[in-house]
């Protein structure tokens, strides 16, 4: 692995080449969120008030799921302070945007802004980092999962993307609620409970069948879309002791229209260099990174990144490699030999696991 540098090291070298305007909030981004909100409300009313054909309900559920995800991407942007600066307005708009995913703004800032961004891909401090071999040995559930045949494990791993964000968000609430000042805990709890109260209320209003199409299926779709990005953001990269975004983050490439719908969320290395900059300007940052450090920068088509995820395990070995403990195969990470997700070599680790 090349010498690692902090995100501040890179940012300080790119910033002189950028206009001051790129660091200003872009409130116009809210128009996209308003459009998504109108679609969601319209979808709820259509399913709730009319007895539509199942095919139409499925179509609406798909649109709602895509809208839930789009709102989540905007909520992520809002809570980084790149849309509006006023604290109360940022929290309010962030709460609305994350409402479908039932994630409160205070919890998100603690979990994502303060912990994930500051300690990205640190094996102990990043709440989103996947476990190393030592943690795997201590986890009976993971050991059982990795005894499954590879194809079965990969299939269920991808299927689980449809619930991972919701489950991980719940785990983060349990993990971090104790870290909040006691006087702030009721607000954190309320921000977590209120969205779920809304969705349970919707269940009683429209009934279980319609609720399936209005909320549950859309939630699964939104989880899958969001986690497809989150999984490719870092899970092919090595663990790093220094928070080096060019080593521990991946930018995926998607069609331009997808970037419009997803608020440029695909530019993830750029985001970790400048989290307080509107993603509107990340294409400019990307140009500078590729000009200054082309050999360090990682980008990959989303389809290729998802294929590499399918073909590799999620257990780290020596930080720079991924390992299938029972097959005793190791795989390179990005920057350390990962090409198509094929095993690089075999180590005699049977006694270890």
Automatic annotation (TrEMBL):
<feature type="domain" description="Fatty acid desaturase">
    <location>
        <begin position="59"/>
        <end position="301"/>
    </location>
</feature>
<dbReference type="InterPro" id="IPR005804">
    <property type="entry name" value="FA_desaturase_dom"/>
</dbReference>
<feature type="transmembrane region" description="Helical">
    <location>
        <begin position="88"/>
        <end position="108"/>
    </location>
</feature>
<dbReference type="GO" id="GO:0016020">
    <property type="term" value="C:membrane"/>
</dbReference>
<dbReference type="InterPro" id="IPR012171">
    <property type="entry name" value="Fatty_acid_desaturase"/>
</dbReference>
<protein>
    <submittedName>
        <fullName>Acyl-CoA desaturase</fullName>
    </submittedName>
</protein>
<feature type="transmembrane region" description="Helical">
    <location>
        <begin position="186"/>
        <end position="206"/>
    </location>
</feature>
<keyword id="KW-1133">Transmembrane helix</keyword>
<dbReference type="Pfam" id="PF00487">
    <property type="entry name" value="FA_desaturase"/>
</dbReference>
<keyword id="KW-0812">Transmembrane</keyword>
<feature type="transmembrane region" description="Helical">
    <location>
        <begin position="30"/>
        <end position="50"/>
    </location>
</feature>
<feature type="transmembrane region" description="Helical">
    <location>
        <begin position="56"/>
        <end position="76"/>
    </location>
</feature>
<keyword id="KW-0472">Membrane</keyword>
<feature type="transmembrane region" description="Helical">
    <location>
        <begin position="212"/>
        <end position="230"/>
    </location>
</feature>
<dbReference type="GO" id="GO:0016717">
    <property type="term" value="F:oxidoreductase activity, acting on paired donors, with oxidation of a pair of donors resulting in the reduction of molecular oxygen to two molecules of water"/>
</dbReference>
<dbReference type="GO" id="GO:0008610">
    <property type="term" value="P:lipid biosynthetic process"/>
</dbReference>
<feature type="transmembrane region" description="Helical">
    <location>
        <begin position="150"/>
        <end position="174"/>
    </location>
</feature>
């Amino acid at each position: 692995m090349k010498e690692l540098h902090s995100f501040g090291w890179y940012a300080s070298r790119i910033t002189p080449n950028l206009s001051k305007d790129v660091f200003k909030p872009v409130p116009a981004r809210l128009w996209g969120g308003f459009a998504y909100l109108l679609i969601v409300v319209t979808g709820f009313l259509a399913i709730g008030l009319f007895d539509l054909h199942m095919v139409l309900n499925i179509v609406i559920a798909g649109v709602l799921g895509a809208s839930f995800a789009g709102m989540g991407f905007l909520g992520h942007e809002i809570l980084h302070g790149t849309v509006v600066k006023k604290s109360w307005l940022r929290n309010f708009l962030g709460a609305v945007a994350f409402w479908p995913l039932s994630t409160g703004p205070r919890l998100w800032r603690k979990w994502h802004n303060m912990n994930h961004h500051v300690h990205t891909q640190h094996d102990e401090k990043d709440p989103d980092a996947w476990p190393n071999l030592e943690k795997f040995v201590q986890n009976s559930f993971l050991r059982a999962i990795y005894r499954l045949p590879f194809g079965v494990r990969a299939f269920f791993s991808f299927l689980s993307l449809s619930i991972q964000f919701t489950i991980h968000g719940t785990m983060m609430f349990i993990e971090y609620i104790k870290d909040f000042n006691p006087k702030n805990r009721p607000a954190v709890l309320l921000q977590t409970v209120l969205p779920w109260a809304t969705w349970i209320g919707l269940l009683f209003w429209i009934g279980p069948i319609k609720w399936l199409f209005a909320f549950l299926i859309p939630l699964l779709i939104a989880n899958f879309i969001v986690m497809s990005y989150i999984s490719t953001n870092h899970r092919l990269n090595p663990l790093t002791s220094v928070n080096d975004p060019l080593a521990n983050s991946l930018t995926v490439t998607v069609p331009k229209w997808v970037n419009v719908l997803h608020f440029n969320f695909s530019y993830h290395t750029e985001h970790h260099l400048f989290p307080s900059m509107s993603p509107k300007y990340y294409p400019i940052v990307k140009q500078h990174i590729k000009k200054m450090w082309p050999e360090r920068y990682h980008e990959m088509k989303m389809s290729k990144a998802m294929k590499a995820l399918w073909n590799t395990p999620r257990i780290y070995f020596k930080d720079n490699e991924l390992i299938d403990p029972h097959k005793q195969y190791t795989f390179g990470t990005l920057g350390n030999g990962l090409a198509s997700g094929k095993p690089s070599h075999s180590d005699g680790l049977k006694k270890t696991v």
